[in-house]
């Protein structure tokens, strides 16, 4: 499956990067930045060189600086909007590729899992003659972004509430919607409370969790039971389970979400960001290995 390919110059990408406002879809900027910043130091030499080669020069070899690019171009490329998430049947708490991976018009493969598969296939042509048919810079930016999105539990949410987008809640004293709580509010509150409102401290804290032996099952995350990473069906199944067990749990319209919710959900957000980073690195190492 291929998505429409639009050739754009790195200059234009830079222009969009500089003038766009923060549009929330998927983890917010800090969530995506965290996933990419956790991934980049884990790259093999071959993968690090390929990433450096594919990134535009103005990114200065910082994948994190363009990890939200896919959100910023979404409105200029409406075809890419359905690629950020998957809608699953209400209350079933399961995901199946053939049943769920389609857009609102029913066109199959157009969901975040299909997109991860598609851009992985494109990047596998790196260094080969067939690479010229693709824009591999964009493929890298899309893949890096979607590997973050698929780990946000509500990006594999219920169809009728659009992954929590139509569930109005209060985040402490402010109005929000449940989807935004998971994209941004939990991360922002964690940064304010534990990290001097500094995303680099949040990244360091999650990095420490990854490094501490026995804390996270990092080796297991890096592989797939069959084949090489990525294994997005696994990540999507984990997300809908986390959506049911943590994101939706106990939440109704106009719920007031405060410390009891925050304190029990923030470890899940850290875990999903850590898994996103570790698996993005494992995927790029597998592709460019
Ligand atoms: Zn997104």
Automatic annotation (TrEMBL):
<dbReference type="GO" id="GO:0004521">
    <property type="term" value="F:RNA endonuclease activity"/>
</dbReference>
<keyword id="KW-0378">Hydrolase</keyword>
<keyword id="KW-0255">Endonuclease</keyword>
<dbReference type="InterPro" id="IPR008947">
    <property type="entry name" value="PLipase_C/P1_nuclease_dom_sf"/>
</dbReference>
<dbReference type="GO" id="GO:0000014">
    <property type="term" value="F:single-stranded DNA endodeoxyribonuclease activity"/>
</dbReference>
<comment type="similarity">
    <text>Belongs to the nuclease type I family.</text>
</comment>
<keyword id="KW-0732">Signal</keyword>
<dbReference type="InterPro" id="IPR003154">
    <property type="entry name" value="S1/P1nuclease"/>
</dbReference>
<feature type="signal peptide">
    <location>
        <begin position="1"/>
        <end position="26"/>
    </location>
</feature>
<keyword id="KW-0479">Metal-binding</keyword>
<keyword id="KW-1015">Disulfide bond</keyword>
<dbReference type="GO" id="GO:0006308">
    <property type="term" value="P:DNA catabolic process"/>
</dbReference>
<dbReference type="Pfam" id="PF02265">
    <property type="entry name" value="S1-P1_nuclease"/>
</dbReference>
<comment type="subunit">
    <text>Monomer.</text>
</comment>
<keyword id="KW-0540">Nuclease</keyword>
<dbReference type="GO" id="GO:0003676">
    <property type="term" value="F:nucleic acid binding"/>
</dbReference>
<protein>
    <recommendedName>
        <fullName>Aspergillus nuclease S1</fullName>
        <ecNumber>3.1.30.1</ecNumber>
    </recommendedName>
</protein>
<keyword id="KW-0325">Glycoprotein</keyword>
<dbReference type="GO" id="GO:0046872">
    <property type="term" value="F:metal ion binding"/>
</dbReference>
């Amino acid at each position: 499956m291929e998505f429409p390919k639009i050739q754009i110059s790195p200059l234009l990408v830079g222009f969009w990067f500089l003038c766009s406002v923060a549009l929330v879809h998927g983890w917010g900027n800090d969530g995506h930045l965290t996933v990419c910043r956790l991934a980049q130091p884990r790259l093999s030499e071959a993968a690090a060189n390929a990433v450096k080669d594919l990134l535009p020069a103005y990114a200065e070899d910082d994948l994190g600086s363009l990890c939200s690019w896919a959100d910023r171009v979404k409105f200029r490329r409406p075809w890419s909007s359905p690629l950020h998430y998957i809608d699953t049947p209400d209350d079933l708490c399961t995901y199946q590729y053939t049943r769920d991976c389609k857009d609102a018009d029913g066109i199959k493969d157009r969901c975040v899992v299909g997109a991860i598969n598609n851009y992985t296939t494109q990047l596998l042509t790196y260094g080969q003659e067939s690479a010229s048919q693709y824009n591999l810079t964009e493929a890298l930016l899309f893949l890096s972004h979607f590997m973050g999105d698929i780990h946000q539990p509500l990006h594999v949410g219920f169809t009728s509430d659009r992954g929590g987008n139509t569930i109005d809640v209060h985040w402490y004293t402010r109005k929000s919607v449940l989807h935004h709580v998971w994209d941004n509010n939990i991360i922002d509150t964690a940064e304010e409370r534990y990290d001097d409102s500094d995303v680099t401290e949040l990244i360091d804290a999650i990095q420490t969790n990854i490094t501490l032996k026995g804390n996270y099952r990092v080796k297991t995350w890096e592989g797939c039971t069959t084949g090489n990473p990525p294994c997005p069906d696994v990540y999507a199944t984990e997300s809908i389970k986390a959506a049911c067990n943590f994101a939706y749990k106990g939440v109704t319209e106009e719920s007031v979400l405060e410390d009891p919710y925050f304190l029990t959900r923030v470890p899940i957000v850290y875990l999903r960001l850590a898994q996103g980073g570790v698996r993005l690195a494992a995927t790029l190492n597998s592709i460019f290995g």
